[in-house]
Records
---
Amino acid sequence: MTTAALPLPKPVKGPPLVTSEVFGMLIWVFAEVMLFAGFISGYNLVGARAPAGWWPPPGDPALPVASTAAASLALLASGVAVWWAGRPASRAAAGRALGIAVVLALVFVGYQVAEFARLLAIGFTLVSSAHGGFFYTIIGAHALHAVSAVVALGWGWRKLSNGALSEPLFAALRIYWFFVVLLWPVLFTVVYL
Amino acid sequence: MAESHAHAHEPHGHAHHEPEGWFKHYFWSTDHKMIAKQYLLTGMLMGVVGAYFAYVFRMQLAFPGKPVPGYGMVTGADYNALITNHGAVMIFWVAMPVLIAAFGNYLIPLMIGADDMVFPRLNRLSYQIFLVSAIILGASFFVQGGAFGGAWTSYPPLSAKAEYNLTPLGPSLWLIAVALEFVAFLLGGINFVTTAMNARAPGMKAFDIPMAVWMIVIASIMFMASVGPLVAGAVMLLFDQLIGTGFFDPDRGGDPVLWQHLFWFFGHPEVYVVLLPAMGFVAEIITVFSRKKLFAYKTVLYTSIGTGVLSFFVWAHHQFIAGIDPRMANVFSVTTVLISIPIAEMCFVYIATLYGGSITFSVPMLWALAFIGEFLVGGVTGIFLGASGADIYFHDTYFVVAHFHYTFFPIAIIGTFAGITYWFPKMYGRHMNELANKVHFWITTVAFNGIFIPLFILGASGDHRRIFDYSNFPELATPEMQAMRVFATVSLLVLLAAQPIFLVNFFYSMFKGKQAGANPWNANTLEWQCPSPPPHGNFDVLPDVYRGPYEYSSPDRADDFWPQNSPS
């Protein structure tokens, strides 16, 4: 039993388990995962309640599975590039990898924009059916996340080349990009296949 | 490790204290205490607005067809807009900002011995987005067609099509306001959890964290887990309203019940999101005013985590009559009744804490005890509604209204008053007038029961809610039922009449109250170990922590309290 008179030794605090930047980003990604979980369960619920043979509705065009799968490879490759940039390496090498990642991400987003334009032109729109609404909302939400992540990566790239990008902040940016990349195969499976 | 991590995050630490301008101090501050006060005062203002709405529609229910003093004639559309926005304002713009944002911002850094949040600028942005959301909600009353009147649950198709709800702009503004408000609390919640994780004082281990901080952190995590699906639903509903998509339109392959699932997946955890902080305040208050250790600290902690997890599996009890499969209804009945176990456990733990203590009936203690008693009524009546068979009868009656007011009023009003009266000396360095506070406490608590006990009886006799004028329904407009409506409304008038006592006391004491000193309640937690009000940067020397927060009446000491940061 400690006696009240003896002062206890001063406690020492070790480094944090996870830096604040990374921890904050993980919570944000968690909330984002739940957002997409909401979209996906809505999509599945409406699909499950549709009469047999009516989901997707017969009038809707077939979604371009093969070309989208090809574009997905660009997105996955950019995820690999960002992972590469995060490895311990020279700042120049990290910058090059990040640049490649941004270009690959832009290829993917560019493909999505072109694909949306083509589908809209043949009459498949947000309002043409509930299926169309889900398609553009879910895939569009992912595309918006990809765009915002590309902007964030570009900003990180600039800071990195100035030498002003702290490692925890860079780690947080990478986590956000991994989220965007890894979310995509899930959405692709649910919506396209 | 020469320097703790908390110290490393110092955007405005002790090093520079250049004088700030008036605008920067009150409107552009990144100081967690100022942001907390911004949230608190905005929440109180919105509380007055929400109370005014309640006054107008309760007057209409008691005296249908007569002009309401201070408003005028109430039309059906007015009535709908008032009940809708009363619910929305009280939950999203009063309970959330005051209980979580204001107290979370104020208490977390002080209670864990940090100088500020880890992301102060994110914190400032959070309040600014919240303010914009409140302004948008207010603006929705002044657009063509008036404010949204489809209930705070905003069920489609009523909320989705202007030809049904006759308010072309109101529903969209309402949804945008709610969505922005969620973004504000997401930013706030990230801050709370990260700060509590990384910025704690040296020596503060997981079980040395005061219960109020734990509860706010758990509530924030629950909020972040539940809000995503609702934002997804809000985007889809907004598209249905503005673009004409068919997510919730059965004609076009959509499903209106989908909204109910997405809404209540958020909506039910939300009850516990606001409940837990209030439970945390009560834990702080009853330990201080019974001079006892919190009974079963770890049990309370694990119980609140359990409540949080379980609350994600009860949402469909709001939909028992929405045509869901009866087998699913059974499952949700069981989970709903199960969740009363952890809540009952918390109440028992608090009662056990009181047992054998030397109790002081100070104003915060009165509020805390009232919280336990009144919330118990709300919890027990919830069992009737959780049982799917009984719910078929009670659904959409005033029994439901009385039930959830017996949960939300203790949380958002009683819990808030407990928190404000307890921490006021810390916030402003002065005491509130005790006699005025006691008068306010008794009138408010008694009048609250006077409002809602008649509504239980009305609901059990089949009184359907959301009816604007009962004179059109002779079987619901009997003299006995009307007398109970009048009784409830008069009780509301009494309750409202008591609130200026508090408001005058609050603002008067802020400037003219008796000086409080750093630790007027002889409490252990760290916020009482710094000056009142705490300066920018909070502590003169950032504290170290040597023990848990509830070491009261230790036999080893002359004092009956033992501050967490005292080395001996």
---
Amino acid sequence: MALLEVKNLGISFGGLRAVDEFNVSIEKGELYGLIGPNGAGKTTVFNMLTGVYKPSKGVITLDGENITGKSTRDINRAGIARTFQNIRLFKEMSVLDNVKVGLHNHYKYSTAEGVFRLPRFFSTEKEMDKKAMELLHVFELDDKADFLASNLPYGDQRKLEIARALATEPKLLLLDEPAAGMNPNETVELMNTIRFVRDNFDMTVLLIEHDMTLVSGICEKLSVLNFGQLLCQGKTSDVLNNPEVITAYLGE
Amino acid sequence: MNNKTALAKTKMLKPQTKKSFTTYIMVTVVFVIMMILSSTGNVSSQIDGLLVPLCVYSILAVSLNLTVGILGELSLGQAGFMCVGAYASALFSIATKETILVEWVRFPLAILVGGIFAAIFGILIGIPVLRLNGDYLAIVTLAFGEIIKNVFAALYVGIDSKGLHIALNQADMNLEADGTEIIRGALGVKGVPNDSSFVVGFILLLITLIISYNYINSRTGRAVKAIRDNSIATESVGLNITKYKLITFALTAFLAGIAGALYSHNYSTLQASKFDYNLSILILVFVVLGGIGNIRGSVIAAIILTLIPELLRSINSYRMLIYSIVLIVMMILTSNEKARTFIVTNFGKLKGMVLKIFKRKDTAEKEVK
């Protein structure tokens, strides 16, 4: 059974059918890419998968659990974490705190225990610090843990967003244009990071990307969206050589 | 690139605990100085009468800063919650005047009652109101504050051998001959025991500061700050936004209720008309000028801006003129980047000189503001 099963997913805004009949099935541990021209509905699919938009039709199943139409919060708790196309960090908080917000649901103590500084506050905070630093270490951000998130260079902000998403211990990680605005070196570094995350965190990754180096470099399977419709689906090499995909998206 | 990292370093965050302890020490030092001055008879009766209100306004400013600065939502209902706390605690004190004779047992209980009632109001109002944000939230909280004030101004409560009587005008109360009126509408409450003192005020302010700092630097506080910075991202990492908004709103109301209790026990009469929107705006001014999200700044602004108009009473005609100039200067100082760098560098030099005397090396200080 696939980790993520999406069947006949569709959404309309007013009269506009933004996404229609979208099907995808992602196995555990896969690196899956979602590509297509601008305005094809890629981010809309992400927003439906994470509960930002409620799909007008279709069913989304994560690990056997039907998560269609659930709230963003419940979907995250069910096991989907995401990053955003336009980075959404907690800007006025430290890098460490950004990750600790991600850990929120896994390390608990009550508000009263926090206000009165009871023993559980200290022990839990210590565990959180340790776990957060481990995550930051993976992304080579541990020496910047005290920086304000908004003061990080662009590439690091992207990495921090991934670290924060991973902190929620998801089963499926959605990356919305992770390489946007990165130079070729940073992109290569990012590709290694994504591979590392998949291998070491046992993660399944679904990503939207325009950077073909990254897509052809790490994605094992691809879906191509065009005008809200699935154009093609399958192994990366097959999809990228598909004449329809070449006309619609890649160009001759 | 080099430039960027240098900038990042200057903005490096200071350990929060250090910040909070500096504030505790600062408040304690001021308290001790004032106590010494007043015990040696060096404080005029005018200043002496201001000591408790100073604590009240500081507590109100700090608590409002939790909603405005940490949660990032504009609330203008602070006076309303203070009003609830003031009335609830005053009623408790009057009702238990005969049964609990020891003042230091009765007053803490009254304060707690005031805080809890205000918190309950905070939750009840918060549930519908916190669905809004920005200007809409400000308008609705302002309205709720006014509603609370006006309800209390119209309320008549009396007690007699038959029990409690509550009505909206004096004639409807139907009190027996042995009855006493507790709340008399716009005339308010009379005979509130004068339990407040500067010592109690100081202790409450310190407790408020400790609660606020600990709250901000806990798991819940982190969630609240995350909501302020980006609510969509906060939801995407699985947090319940409404819950944390509501907790913060209730805590703000609770602390405002405590301040109300302190306030009502400072004067023997209590009138609802005091808790109008001017008071809410005044507290918001403290918060904004002290620095949004800056707890210590709230206390400093509350003290300065309460003292100035009072100290200028001798030159009454120029009083508000000077007050407004101070407001404008503070605004410029807190918002203008150039003015701020000027202060920070010069303050750093001054600090360096002071620190040299104590033979301590602390260079990171001047970069942080």
---
Amino acid sequence: MLRDITLGQYYPANSVIHRLDPRVKLLGTLLFIVSLFSFKGVTALALATIFLVTVIKVSKVPFKFMVKGLRAIVILMLITAFFNLFLTPGEALVSFWKFKITAPGIKNAVLMAIRLTYLILGTSIMTLTTTPNQLTAGLEMALRPLRKVGVPVHAVSMMMSIALRFIPILIEETDKIMKAQMARGADFESGNLIRKVKSMVPLLVPLFVAAFRRADDLAMAMEARCYHGGDGRTQLKPLRYQGRDRLAYLILFSYLAGVFLCRHFLPWPQG
Amino acid sequence: MGIIKARQLVHEYIRRDEEGNVESISTALDHLNLDVEQGQFIAVLGHNGSGKSTLAKHINALLTPTEGTLWVDGLDVSDEENVMTVRENAGMVFQNPDNQIIASVVEEDVAFGPENIGVPTDEIWDRVEQSLRTVGMLKYRTYSPNKLSGGQKQRVAIAGVLAMQPKCIVLDEPTAMLDPTGRRDVIRTALELNREKGVTIILITHYMEEVVEADRVFVMDEGKLVMQGTPREIFSRVEELKHYRLGVPQMTLLADELRRAGLPLAGGIMTREELVEELAKLRA
Amino acid sequence: MSIILDKVNYIYSPGTAYQVQALNDINLEIRDGQFIGVIGHTGSGKSTLIQHLNGLVKATSGNIYFNGEDIYAEDFDLKGLRTRVGLVFQYPEHQLFETTIFDDVCFGPKNQGLSKEKAGLRAFEALRSVGLSEEVYYHSPFELSGGQKRRVAIAGVLAMKPEVLILDEPTAGLDPAGRDEILRLLRELHRERGITVILVSHSMEDVADYVERIIVMNQGSVMLDDIPREVFLHYRELEAVGLAAPQVTYLMHELRERGLAVDTRATTLAEAKDTILKAFV
């Protein structure tokens, strides 16, 4: 099940979206999220949908692959939708016991589900088309001003990219240790909470030991390849804005302007 | 002077308790003397704990000598100022393929070394392409390392070192965690680098079959260099090797047994081909 | 007493683009007291196969019978099966977690529901049988050498008194001396206690000298299943799937081609020596 999480994974393909400057994608994702939570009206929703679908199409990441990542958040979505459905005040359409379903409730629930889905899809399109290294390079560049106030921007971004590289490995390792302890009769499922917590010890100790061993090895391997922090480092893929990036910014801001125009001139039909 | 030269090299691991008092000292390298010429293919044998890995880490300046001196391409590794140059000249490949790949895309990982030493971007691209081509992994350049087999990951690691254009590469048990196919590919890659590009190779291994094509073999025991010579010379000393808890290639062992049983076979047989030839000659 | 696999199939991530048929119609009978080698290169399905034998992985289709009982039946004690078929994973030393070696070995027996005393006795016995000296029993497992740690991990499974012991690449990463120690230990366990031992390996040489039966896995199917010398007669087919027969097999065939009257079925060094000497008499 852990393997199904696609958020934070990279999907190699050759598309314009893949080639975009990570800074464009970072800012784009941020602006897209802003647009999601500020739009009003069907037209704006349609605009957001067209924008998202186009980006996904252009990115060449199979839609099926992205949907798999949604599975992990289905519960979260159901809970939010549930609260919106029952707790929005208004005239009751259906009511039973203490609950009532209202028309604005349905509207809110549907909207919330759509927003969350778009949010996850929008964010995963960024991580799926940007290698962790590019992503951190983008963050490093974007956060560079913070260096002046003593934030170790390079170290932080290096840590992030290494973490991303090792997440799948550690997930696999967890799976393996779990099976190995189960083969020794360990039981991770039954019992009350305290027993469950206790039963995690045989899993967590080896996992930590393994993580430290890997960290140790990796530090040595990095040193052996002349790593000495960010000073004097050059880059394989330095960030330089290209024509396509400028164009992307233009499209992005036009989209945002579109959403805001709809918000003012074509709001949701008041029902 | 050769590419690597050690004189009276000592390394001690000191273990301290919580108050910082010395609890125990173990000597991993014990007044070791060693010479390697540029362009040689050296195999280092020794059981676990014989000091092989400690030696390897000195050549890359990951460890510094407690006593004595080690020169890599004429530079003293104890000198702080030489560290980066030494690491550039003598690359290192480790045992666990997963724990030495830093980036999430093959080509970005190969670029890591050149980036650190400040190679200009255009040249990094050239070096990455060349290195990946040399190890036969060019078509995997945009892959995630997680999608590769163990042997392929090790070849990426070799490419990562190669991209720094070292004179010498130390491989510390690079095949210990691989299956036979991966093992063969990695050893072949190392041999090609040595024969075609003239890179000095120091291969630390447990597998006797990997040693056969080396120019020289060093055998280590308790931090000392106890045997050295060509593979043929080394493997003709079966009893001595057993004493150091080492094996010999299977064919050498069989030839040895046959000799004891009275067949007048020549000494130093290492490969199947040699044994077949010898037996056929004997027959004729 | 035996384990029987009847048309076992296993599919990873069924119904997705990543669908992989890891096991393909496996029929096997593993009789009591055998010493079996399972060989195949990475991805051949050998690791998936052994995880079926102790119920850690459930077959997508097909049945597995342990001593005549269907292990997928409602009332079958699957947790009990895991302790009766002991499985030692690759690099088992990575699963050690207790503060002392002794406590770690007690983990399995305790999970079986044994009292502290009984678990302790089991641990002693198991540690002794893997040849670890008593003075280290109360040390931290993390202080030991790689080979010793591995023996502690094997003891951790032995302490559950399994009827079948399965080991996935138990010699990986060890030096030659450590390799021999582990293999000798397994031979001893098999001979003296009569436990069924299943050794998974990609090294033909390791396996040829020790086992009485070899199962060759390729692309999720059983490709060959026979006594070693019969399996190695198919050395050309083995090569075609990226496996090699032991050096000795090749040697024998090459000597035959050069006109020496040797027995090409020899697979171990001792057999090779005998038949070569005979050819020269």
